[in-house]
Amino acid sequence: MKNxxxxxxxxxLTSNQWRWLEDMTSKYKLSGTSKAMRCCINCVALGDxxxxxxxxxxxxxTITKDLELSTEQLAWIExxxxxxxxxxxxxxxxxxxxxxxxxxxxxxxxxxxxxxVAKCEGAQEAVENIQQQFxxxxxxVVTKENIDICAKSCGCE
Length: 157
Hints:
Oligomer: single chain
Helix content: 40-55%
Order of helices and strands: EHHEHHHEHE
Strand order of the largest sheet: 1-2
Structural class: alpha+beta
């Protein structure tokens, strides 16, 4: 679903990483792989996951696809290119790789919202999905509101 508040970005990820994003999109009832990637970026940018400075995702066959990201997420990625050590992996590959190593709840079960959950219909829907997915009661879902990913420093170790 095209959202005018997002900008398309050509992204190179390995086939394993794309498959993982697609699996998480389906499992957590996300609107698409762009939403799964936005969850991953926010998770790393807010310090809930750490990117590794080098390494391999286990697969060399990269595939380029477009993802839709927010202006803040694009700025965060650009900032990481200048702050993090050079490696063979792109920032996007590092982000997905870091999230693939975490428990899924940390990446997709914590609501990270630029405003407040009460004001955001998408966040309210996400809370309901997470309650179902993880058999949680109302009030048990962890939320991080009024986030500003550009205020955080580099997510590299």
